[in-house]
Amino acid sequence: MFPNFIFTMFILLLLVAQTRIQAFNIIPDSSSTHQNITINAILQKSAEVCQKVLSKQGRNFVQPKSLTVESVAEACLSPASALTLKSAISEIKNRNFMTDLKYFKDPKYHFDNERFEDGRNVITEGVKKVKASLMQKNYEFAREQLGEILHTLQDFYSHSNWIELGNRSPYANLINPNLPLEKLADKNTPTCRSCVDDDCSNNILDTVISQKLLTSGYTNGITISKPAGKCSHGGAIDLTSQLDPKGGINKDTPKSSHGNLHFVAADVATAATRDLLEDIRKSTNDIEFLRLMGISSSSSVLCIVIDTSVSMADEIAEIKRVTSFIIDSRRGTADEPSIYILVPFNDPGFGPVTKTTNRDDFKSQINALSAAGGGDNPEMSLSGLWLALAGAPAASEIFLFTDAEPKDVEMKSTVLALIESTKSTVNFLLTNLLTNTTRSLSNSVNQLYEDLALASGGQAIEVSKELLANTTSLITNSTISGLVTIFQTVRDPGRAEVFSFVVDSTVQNLTFYITGNSTQFSITAPSGQSQSSEQSDGSVGVIQTVFNFHTVRIKTSSPVGQWLISISSAQPYSLKVTGKSTINFKFDFVEVVQTPQPGYAVYKSRPPATGNVTLLVSLLGSESGVLKEVTLVEASGSGVYKGILEDVGSGDYMVTVTTVPKGDFYIRLNGQFNSSSTSAFQRQSSTRYRASNITVTAVNNDTWVAGQIFKLPFNVTTSSNLSNYIINVKNSRQYNMTFPSSLTAGGDGVANGTVELSAPFNAIDGTGVILTIEATQPGTNDTNYAFLRLAVSREVVPSAGLALSLWLSALTVLISRLSHQ
């Protein structure tokens, strides 16, 4: 996925309406759609692969009666994977839709204009990128690329006459570059006659049918024309369908020119999608294929970012202890981490990122850590965190250990952009105690850490080195599968207030986290029992306090009902309530598109501050559950902005909010299951968000080849009167790049720039790179960003000039070696 946009989207849609976007619909109606074709194929193939895996393990696979995200995750014996499976499917199908917007002028991406060889190349080259990225465990980019090529593959069955030729199974040659595409109608061969009285059911020429010639419809290009005698795509926006022979042959909907074959084409497109997924599976192994689809034995991730400077010996020893405990105690359980990530830092170094699925390899990496170097006190902590956010899966829980202030404070906005984009939570365990009681943290230099923790929904905990072991239970509590946030808020400045929230019957391991100095609180359970912060072990729970951090583990095994917590403090504080539950949700800010085809594009940036904001919210874990309310809640206030809900099926809801908070806000939802008034549930986002008047747009339409300059154009617009921007660009591989440090908008209100990146010649095929392009208006705190996932390719034949350069470089190396012999 790549950032959505407002101004550029509007311009694109105007152009598209005059040119071409025709395909299976995106948003479900009475027809089959790109969306449900993709979803059905992924669920079918995932269930099939799970069955093979469990059979090899000697475990039982129970075929679901109906295939849903929840039922497939349950059948795979990994119910917590429902959220990550849903997220993976969303990434794939969202990029499927965006193919129309990216390549609306190019017929090869849709098998239009008889561009069969070119269309097949789109698929096969795209499959190479998917496989290369999968080899590097770059799952996110692989999903995006997969969605793009699936759109092209699925369009073949709607836009060509494959179905009209009597075929009811996929054309295998489309995904195999070694097989020829046979019996293609040449440019001079007429293929259609005009439709009669809007009846196009018999407009393909008999000779084409009898000779089994493959053709596809022509549609608007730069000019409105087509070769003599050729079929058109058809439809209201295809102006070539008004040229002889008139009409069209597409099967996009039941009302299309060949709409009587719409559902047949959709069924074959689904089978073709399964075949392509099988081809990808064969290139790797079953476990890796399931990871690509978001299914693993556990949804838990263990991600450690640690300062390795000379003063950190005690902290490193504690990290070794707690990670060994997690690895050893969870081996073979549902909470065993599926991915382990380690990022060291000091000064001036940070990284590299160690990312593995092998627990013993991770344990060895942790045990190899030692405290050395570091020099002056500030360390490169934000750079280390930046690498962790870029390398970890979305919605990861990250833990950073340091006893120093950040040296790289300029990285704050980039880190915030990654926190918002990935929805990850960051917890800081800080052992640099000083005395300063004016803030919620006793050490004022830790304020930046606190800001980032609050933005992500994490904790910033100050603790002495001697008591660090008393706080690392946060890691063991927060790295379990199925953890959900029930309630969260911040008060800055602090004040006395009573908070209430609902806990449902699916919640286990109910835990409260309160961060703040001089904070007193009292908790009242639904039963009426109360306990104050002075009681470390009472009727409600067990309270552990270490400096500014309070953990309350609720004792009761049945916490159902309304809870109250009264907090009193003159200093800032935060409250977070979590539990383990099967009911969860995912959401994205989206731009709904109605013309020329209904659909939506996902923002990978901050949503707009003006006008309506739309969210696509997916409820997971309760087949009988329904959403009752979705609100944007001020992060440090009492303002609540209610959304208008539209149920679009399959547990998905479009939510429109007419007014957006001016400051930071959370997403909160309330729902009900089992049709009982006492079965209410409540969930909330951990990450907090902010709207922006700025829009940053960057679309990657090219292949990034190792050793060559990669150019990525971008533009910036704003809804305010200001037109100057400060630009900052970061890439997660620290590859060489250039970009303008500032931009000024032209008369059209658009500021244009280009980022130029260069990956080394020896970069591995499929290497993933996260790029953030940030724009800030001087004199304001308004900023926005574009968030892109890129991958380096080595699959392009070098140009003559590049080939000569490579040859000369190799010759120079050879001469140098010979001269030293």
Give a written overview of the molecule:
- With 821 residues, this protein is of the alpha+beta class.
- The chain has five domains: 31-181 and 259-292, no CATH class; 298-481, Rossmann fold (3-Layer(aba) Sandwich), CATH 3.40.50; 483-581, Jelly Rolls (Sandwich), CATH 2.60.120; 584-684, Immunoglobulin-like, CATH 2.60.40; 694-800, Immunoglobulin-like (Sandwich).
- 27% of the residues lie in helices and 26% in strands.
- The chain has 16 helices and 33 strands.
- It has a six-stranded mixed beta sheet with strand order 3-2-1-4-5-6, with helices on both faces. A five-stranded antiparallel beta sheet has the order 7-15-9-13-12, with no helix packed on it.
- A hairpin with an 8-residue loop joins strand 2 (339-345) and strand 3 (354-356).
- The radius of gyration is 28 Å and the shape is globular.
- It starts with 6 loop residues before the first helix and ends with a helix.
- 51% of the residues are buried.
- Mean pLDDT is 89; it is low at 1-22, 435-440 and 796-821.
